[in-house]
Amino acid sequence: MGTRSRVNIIYCVIKRSDYKLVANIIKEYNPRAFYTIEDIRFASQGVFPTRSIMRGYGSFPWRKGK
């Protein structure tokens, strides 16, 4: 319940590169919509690879070893 009336809340996990597209869709659908963007480190399920899969050779190709 919002301060004045009932509200709908939508949670969505997106790739950082898709932010502008999603923001434009929100603005097109409802120009007065309130939305927030948060940096998440973990999602329990979904299509995104877990950190353990991303570890290993090639995780940081721009970083040189010591």
UniProtKB/TrEMBL annotation:
It comes from Geofilum rubicundum JCM 15548. Keywords: Cell membrane, Membrane, Transmembrane, Transmembrane helix. Gene3D superfamilies: 3.30.70.120. InterPro entries: DUF2179, N-reg_PII/ATP_PRibTrfase_C. Residues 4-41 form the DUF2179 domain. This is DUF2179 domain-containing protein. It holds the Pfam family DUF2179. It is found in: Cell membrane. It is a multi-pass membrane protein. GO terms for cellular component: plasma membrane. Its main location: membrane.
